[in-house]
Design brief:
Layout: E1 19-28, H1 33-44, E2 54-57, E3 63-72, H2 75-86, E4 91-94
Antiparallel strand pairs: 1-3, 1-4, 2-3
Helix pairs in contact: 1-2
Length: 95
Amino acid sequence: MTDAMPSGARRDDLIEYPTPFPIKVVGVNEDGFVHAITHIARQFDPTFDATTIELRESGGGKYLGVTITVLATSRAQLDELYRALSTHPMARWVL
């Protein structure tokens, strides 16, 4: 017996829920960006603590990296959160 997974199979059990889960969102450094990301985070994690946000400007200051840490409760929650963040007009990349 082996633990090999068939090609294309997904392992949903790699993360044990609930767990703190960091997500980095990069966008143009403009007014309202951090507020927008915070608002989305709270929609998916009502316990989200905005004081834990980490900010990092790009070398030229044009972009801002916003790292949020949410309480991940399921794969579906994370998938929806990534979808909401990546489709927001102020976000350029979600990592």
